[in-house]
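I had to read the description of the data format several times before I understood it. In essence, backbone conformation is discretised, so a fold becomes a row of integers matching the chain in length. I therefore recommend that a typical entry be quoted early in the introduction. For illustration, here is how one protein appears when written out as sequence plus structure tokens.

***
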Amino acid sequence: MAINTDKNSYTIIFAVAMVVVVGSLLAFTASSLKGRIDANKRTEKQQNILFAMGVTDVEDPNEFVPAEKAQELFDKYVGDEQYIITGNTAEKTADAFGIEVKKENDKVKQDANYVRKLPLFIGNKDGEEFYVVPMRGNGLWDAIWGYVSLDKEFKTVKGAFFDHKGETPGLGANIKEAYFRDDFIGESILDGSGNYKGITVKKGNADPKNVDKSDNEVDAMAGATITGDGVTAMVKKGIKMYQPYFETLKK
């Protein structure tokens, strides 16, 4: 008996069957690749943290350490110096690596009484301490994120890495470029009186060569004002949340 493919019922049944088959295949693929995906995310996060500390590819300082060396170098420079910060207290725990800034932000939005968990990574390279702060914000089109490392005085930026999900190529996407992120290195996050001020990505900055490291400003990217404003807000808010804990370490 021939099947009448012209009937609406056939079209509906065929469409439903295809959705079920394709959905099942996608679910199976996602499940089977979950371990690899999680491993890749872990490696990328280690690379980001190391990059903010200045631990980069030996041959190209503007590139991450090779993926196959990420775990080894992370263990060497950070190891178990991982903390979860809540207010002005810290808990040393390997669970800090699993804390995702985005999820913490979402929890705060859903519950105003939720106590945010802040992951902090303390690295040591060539006898210098690096306090690496993860952060997340919003650019022009979508999410932006980064890692900023501070010196042991919690005053000066030692390194930075920024990335984005969908900023405009050649404009806002340039937050990934060395000429932008390197301007943050050496910049003070405190004002002249020692109070927290953060760093502003400023259009028309009077110090385009970034010689003055005490003005709390870096030069903006051409044609990317909104993305630059997003980086400003992300850095200021991201580091500020750690200030209560940093103040306890100064005493």
About this structure: Residues 8-52 form the longest helix (45 residues). Residues 245 and 251 are 11 Å apart (CA to CA). The mean pLDDT is 90.
